[in-house]
Design a protein that fits this description.
With 906 residues, the chain is an alpha+beta fold. It contains 27 helices and 21 strands. It is a multi-pass membrane protein.
């Protein structure tokens, strides 16, 4: 039997070409992902370890213990005395501290770089970082940049680079080198600049050394020097050898690459699932066609078990050969991906390609076992038909032409009913992340329903679309009839395409709905054209540091502005010292600096209000206060408090409300977001504990979560009572005048911030466009990943067509003999393949739209449903093209077969 099986494979190897390709592609994706992720991980680790092992020991400030109920304390940086003590150790040859703060870097146009300022650090001779290009700065007018920062700004060695010092004055430096900080989390997000110690102290005002790097004395190993440093610094430091420090960083990097690996493997699993459907269909058709051959073997003495093992052996050989080819192709794909995709992900792949045993074994085992398991049912079917019955010609495709029984129909409809019930459940419970899992379960149940009802769906859809096709001509009429000749076979072939169509359409609906919802939210709740906000600086500890006008005239203006903001208040404002000015550090009663983000100078607002192209400017001011009532404030102990200065609430700013109206906001009243309302409602009293005392407010309205309002929104007068020191805006909203030229409006906005480089201007239209582009990129990336499943599905349809053509050789010859031209025969087979593709794609699109809507509604409050007609139309066109391609080779073979030879074949 083994010789017979292998001989049959050699004789009919062409029948397995598309099956081999389907398995090969699936295994290629799995193995390629493993090689890509392993190589990327090794490159990251090599980068991290290479920098960390450049020194023998690394000391970092110890993290204070967390005390429940208190704000987390910050680690205390090392001082000069601690650094000198480390240098004096006999086990230490040299040691240098790294000063670290943040300072504003300006781009070539004079605007601040990044959402937050890059790190400003000093690197000594004993440092785990070194210059990748050029050299480190030696003079106070020199600078080095992180390679990522240089790449984003376009600066090159030799260029003049400008930064802002502590007084917000511009200071020029010559770029002397580039430093690769790798994936160190302290520098990978916002980038970094490298300066001399003197300059870092001047412009970034660091609290001390954030790290001490140590080189061991000759004859001292790294563990010994690390232990000596640890004993010297005591509990104030966490000390590790360079290798240990690198391994800790590499562990975090490894977690990131594992997330990428899992994400890519999900697409690989989808591809393998589609391949399994193709394999099952192929073996089912082949076994059905070879029943006479297998029956003859039974008649000459072969037992059922031998026939069963023969089919499994055949599947094992096909699976193993395909998997070997797939692993080899996967290694090549993984190598190419690491080389070309690595730089796009922010790293240069320097490590050798990693071909681990997991990449090889997983591909071989998965591909082979999947093929064998997919052939189990056809193999069992091969042993059930009696030999004499199978020898009849009419039994050629037994087992695949059976109709759809009523049990199958009832079971399929029941599955769809359960799926619909689960979707209804998510709509009743409202938006909840857990609803996404329910929708996923409903989609899987519905897909099983499609598998169960597949033959019925194929017959019904073909009969519907076949009405106009029958009138087109004889080839179309024959194609319609052939499509429903074997409904189970057709259903199994199109199911593979349905999987890919469902996933692609579903994601496109989620993406389009998310974009539409965001656009609607921005249009309705923020009817503005531009937003101005200061650059975020986590190290900023003063209010209004952006304002630099500290002249006597400016001071007088600042006090006047404060008094204007407090019009109606009796006496001096408690908590603000006389002479305090906007844009400078503000003293409160305990004389400690107020921790706050930078704010926007009042002059920017004044300049904008003078512009004829601007119709409205209103500001946002925010702070936080403790809540007196128990159970209010959600998971936080304090509540965000905001006011919109100059805004007409309900007109300039809107929100979807649970209770009350936004326009009801007035002095003495507050609007709460639903998540912070707790059990309180309209008319209840909320007491905010502020630095100026308790502030009792009546709840005027409650807004839905995920709106423009967050926490407590109060009137401008109440905000001033609670936070009198907050006299400047955190954010400015600008709306253009009716009919204003967009270019002139843009020029007016940017002119207002010319003297304030750290103020960032965001165009709402550009924000929408960027988000749309981001969603498009995500869609096409995912569509490309799922495209592999589509290709495999097309191979499956092509294989089904090829085997059907082989089975209908005499029939095709008879049609030719009766006058059907070769072109008509090719057209008939092409229409048949296109019908299968369109049915699979159509069912997938319908499922994708429904479950895409359900998934979006499960996570998006006030979701605006959108089905991207353009993308769906493109997918339908691709399905038609796929059907035509799937029919090319089978149709060519059928048209090229000799009529007399085919009629005499049996």
């Amino acid at each position: 039997m083994l010789r017979t099986t292998l001989a049959g494979l050699r004789l009919h190897k062409s029948r397995y070409v598309t099956t081999v390709l389907a398995i090969l592609l699936g295994v290629m994706f799995i193995s390629g992902t493993m090689v890509f992720a392993d190589t990327l991980k090794a490159s990251y680790e090599e980068s991290v370890m290479g920098s960390a092992t450049g020194v023998d020991a690394i000391a970092t400030p110890a993290e204070p213990e967390y005390v429940e109920g208190e704000d987390p304390a910050e680690a205390v940086a090392f001082d000069e005395e601690q650094l000198e003590r480390v240098r004096d150790l006999p086990e230490v040859a040299s040691a240098d501290g790294m000063l670290e703060g943040r300072a504003v870097l300006l781009d070539a146009e004079g605007r601040a770089v990044g959402f937050m300022p890059p790190a400003a650090v000093s690197l000594g001779d004993a440092s785990r970082f070194s210059a990748k290009e050029g050299r480190l700065p030696e003079a106070d007018d020199e600078i080095a940049l992180a390679t990522s920062t240089a790449s984003s700004t376009g600066f090159e060695v030799g260029d003049t680079v400008t930064m802002l010092d502590a007084d917000q004055e511009k200071r020029d430096f010559t770029l002397t080198g580039l430093v690769n900080f790798g994936v160190d989390p302290n520098f990978s997000m916002a980038g970094a600049t490298v300066l001399t110690e003197n300059v870092v102290r001047e412009i970034a005002a660091p609290q001390g050394y954030s790290e001490i790097d140590v080189v061991a004395a000759e004859g001292t190993d790294d563990e010994t020097v690390a232990k000596a440093v640890e004993e010297e610094l005591g509990a104030t430091a966490e000390v590790a050898t360079g290798t240990e420090f690198g391994e800790e960083l590499a562990e975090g990097v490894g977690a990131q690459t594992e997330v990428l690996r899992i994400a890519l493997l999900l697409f690989g699993v989808i591809a393998m699932f589609v391949a399994a459907i193709v394999i099952y269909n192929t073996f089912a058709i082949l076994i059905a066609q070879r029943q006479r051959e297998l029956a003859l073997l039974r008649c000459v003495g072969a037992k059922r078990g031998q026939v069963f093992r023969s089919v499994l052996t055949e599947s094992f050989v096909v699976g193993m050969v395909s998997s070997i080819l797939g692993v080899l192709a996967g290694i090549g794909i993984g190598m190419a991906g690491a080389r070309f995709a690595g730089p796009l992900m922010g790293t240069d792949v320097t490590a050798s390609v990693v071909i681990g045993p997991g990449a090889v074994l997983s591909g071989l085992l998965l591909g082979t076992l999947m093929t064998v398991f997919s052939a189990l049912v056809p193999a069992m079917r091969a042993t059930r038909v009696a030999p004499l019955a199978a020898l009849r010609t009419s039994a050629t495709a037994s087992g695949l032409e059976k109709g759809t029984g009523w049990v199958r129909v009832v079971f399929g409809l029941l599955l769809f009913a359960v799926s619909a019930g689960l979707i209804g459940l998510t709509r009743m419970t409202g938006p909840d992340p857990a609803g996404l899992f329910i929708v996923t379960g409903a989609a899987l149940i519905a897909f099983v329903g499609v598998v169960v009802l597949g033959p019925l769906l194929v017959r019904g859809i073909v009969r519907l679309v076949g009405v106009p096709l029958r009138r087109v001509g004889v080839p179309s009429m024959l194609a319609v009839d052939n499509s429903v000749r074997n409904p189970r076979r057709a259903a199994t072939a199109m199911i593979a395409l349905t999987v890919g169509a469902t996933l692609i359409t579903g994601y496109s609906v989620v993406s389009a709905s998310l974009e539409s919802t965001l656009t609607k939210t921005l249009d309705e709740q923020f009817p503005v054209d531009y937003q101005i906000s200061p650059q975020f600086n986590p190290d900023e500890l003063t209010v209004g540091q952006e304002e630099t006008e500290t002249t006597e005239e400016g001071a007088e203006e600042g006090v006047a502005g404060t008094e204007e903001g407090l019009e109606g208040a009796e006496g001096p404002v408690e908590g603000i010292e006389e002479g305090a000015v906007e844009g400078t550090e503000v003293a409160v009663e305990d004389e400690e600096p107020l921790a706050a983000l930078a704010t926007i100078p009042s002059r920017v607002r004044e300049d904008l209000e003078k512009e004829s192209t601007v119709s409205k400017v209103f500001g946002v001011r925010s702070d936080s206060a403790e809540v007196a009532e128990e159970g209010v404030g959600g998971p936080l102990e304090s509540m965000p408090v905001s006011t919109y200065v100059g805004a007409d609430m309900g007109t300039d700013l809107t929100a979807d409300m649970v209770e009350g109206e936004l326009s009801d906001l007035e002095p003495g009243r507050v609007v709460l977001s639903e998540g912070y309302a707790g059990g309180m409602g309209v008319g209840d009293t909320l007491t905010l504990v502020t630095p100026e005392g308790d502030l009792e407010l009546e709840i005027a309205a409650i807004a839905e979560d995920m709106q423009s309002l967050f926490g407590a929104t109060v009137s401008e007068e109440d905000f001033v009572r609670a936070f009198p020191e907050r006299t400047q805006d955190d954010t400015l909203m600008i709306r253009g005048a009716e009919g204003a030229d967009s270019a002139e409006l843009r020029e007016a906005v940017y002119s207002a911030v010319d003297d304030h480089p750290t103020l960032q201007v965001d165009s709402v239209a550009e924000m929408k466009n960027q988000f749309s582009q981001m969603m498009d990129i995500a869609f096409y990336t995912i569509a490309a990943m799922l495209g592999l499943a589509i290709i495999i599905a097309v191979f499956g349809i092509s294989n089904t067509m090829a085997l059907s053509v082989l089975e209908r050789t005499r029939e095709s010859a008879l049609l030719r003999a009766l006058g059907l031209a070769r072109g008509q025969l090719r057209r008939m087979l092409s229409i048949e393949a296109v019908l299968l593709c369109l049915i699979g794609a159509g069912i997938g699109i319908a499922l994708g739209v429904v479950f895409g809507w359900a998934a979006a509604a499960a996570v998006l409050p006030n979701m605006v449903f959108a089905a991207p007609a353009g993308q769906i139309a493109v997918f339908i066109a691709v399905s038609v093209l796929a059907g035509l391609l799937a029919a090319v080779l089978p149709a060519r073979r059928a048209a090229g077969t000799s009529i007399t030879g085919a009629l005499a074949s049996e």
